[in-house]
């Protein structure tokens, strides 16, 4: 596991890349330096051989050849001189070459043509290797022989070895410096990822209070912030879900308790009159209806999560749907002393939607409005907003929604202020289901609210369905 860490992989990748660059680069530099050094040596030898040849050619002193040989010997420059026949007439410290011997016919012909000879000479097994530069000795239209200057290849190799050693040490130093920087850099880059990995494992185990330090503003910092946001969302979802199950348990237990208790009373005849019996049956009917609605909400939620919501899409008179819902809710509004005002335009075209689901949408919104409004009005407006869509507005003068709670009201299981939820009841599914149903029918819903003043929902539906709605 240790060798599988991202810092090791990153460091190894950078080192491999560095070696891939350094090794070929070192080889190229070595060849360039070697070639440059040899070329410089050859040019120096050519200058010396040309200088000696010129001195001999322009001198009338018969001892000039011997003087050049002695001078070269004193300067430790290997050199030998040949006459016009290719015979060696002077030798200064060149092993394997004897006075009186002859050079090759090929070299002799090249000299006679005035060409410069550049070759390599090996003086036996132990005499060493030499670079040779030969220059013709030419008088006035007369070939007089040649001068050959030699340079030991071993001395050149020693110089090149020193340069190679310097290059090797420099490359090694650069490599270890890069290795240290790579380790530091890879650790610096990988440590935040390791911390994030540990944090996500804690989050996966249910520790949703875990947070990652956001120390940069780059992609790593963005990822860390995303993990923190995920932990916050998961915590809110978990808390909402726990509360949802507690609420569902309560919401189920209450009607079941009522149904069981009153059913036992009716069954055992523990009522005083038929009127009292009807009252108990009415309560049982209301609780059964309440239980049915809760089960339907749970069933709708399950189908929405699976993406299998069934809609019976057809041409719908939206005004008629709203009139029916408003008429049903009117009695409840009167019981609470709330004025319900509806303003429904007559020129609104038919919509393409599911009539039963549209009733469910408006029923949920009006029920919420009446539930959270103690006095004042609930207003329902319908109008043609544009040639392509209609606008339905439902507004109340109720207690409103706190600003910090508004971004979450359409989330599943979310309920505004837990104390308020306990007072007014509910499971936190109504608005989530409403929003899903609206969007499944190609519409949209917006909310605006001021705490203590009321809440307004704006629902928009297209008049002409798009392809998605036709497929639905």
Please provide a written account of the structure.
The protein is of the alpha+beta class and 472 residues long. The chain has three domains: 2-158, Beta-Lactamase; 219-306, Signal transduction histidine kinase, dimerisation/phosphotransfer (DHp) domain (Helix Hairpins, Orthogonal Bundle); 314-471, Histidine kinase-like ATPase, C-terminal domain (Heat Shock Protein 90), CATH 3.30.565. The protein is 56% helix and 17% strand. It has helices at 6-57, 64-74, 105-112, 153-204, 219-268, 274-306, 318-336, 355-371, 418-424, 430-440, 467-471, and strands at residues 79-83, 88-92, 117-122, 129-139, 142-152, 314-316, 339-344, 351-353, 377-384, 389-396, 444-450, 454-462. The strands form three sheets. A five-stranded antiparallel beta sheet has the order 2-1-5-4-3, with helices on both faces. A hairpin with a 6-residue loop joins strand 3 (117-122) and strand 4 (129-139). Helix 1 packs antiparallel against helix 4, helix 4 runs parallel beside helix 5 (219-268) and helix 5 runs antiparallel to helix 6. The longest helix has 52 residues, at 6-57.
